[in-house]
Design a protein that fits this description.
- The protein has helices spanning about 45-50, 70-75, and strands at about 15-20, 20-25, 30-35, 55, 60-65, 70, 85, 90.
- With about 90 residues, it is mainly beta.
- The strands form 3 sheets. A 3-stranded antiparallel sheet has the order 1-2-3. Strands 4-5-6 form a 3-stranded antiparallel sheet.
- Strand 1 (about 15-20) and strand 2 form a beta hairpin.
- The model is unreliable at about 5-10 and about 85-93 (pLDDT under 50).
Length: about 90
């Protein structure tokens, strides 16, 4: 008899620290830092909103409460991804 349950494969991802400077995310054995200067979407959010993160596919993270999705590459190299929010309605292209 096979007792394995088939379903969606979910990876472990965890917000490990939130400070006045940014957010630390632990995923795939790496601790990733997201400074508010590079990731302003998180700055004025509640803890509940920030810790509600899913790894939808390997290296791709999604915060459903604020509709933000980021890859490991964009977190590690924010300079390569210049699109940044200046507010809730305006973007710098």
């Amino acid at each position: 008899m096979n007792s394995l349950v088939h379903g969606m494969n979910t990876s472990e991802v965890e917000v490990t620290h939130i400070s006045s400077h940014g957010v630390w995310l632990l995923a795939q054995g790496k601790e990733l830092f997201m400074a508010y200067t590079d990731f302003p979407w998180f700055k004025d959010q509640t803890i509940k909103t920030i810790i509600n993160v899913e790894e939808q596919s390997p290296g791709h993270f999604y915060w459903p409460d604020i509709d933000v999705d980021l890859s490991i590459e964009s977190i590690e190299h924010p300079d390569r991804f210049p699109l940044q929010s200046k507010g809730s309605d305006s973007f710098d292209y």
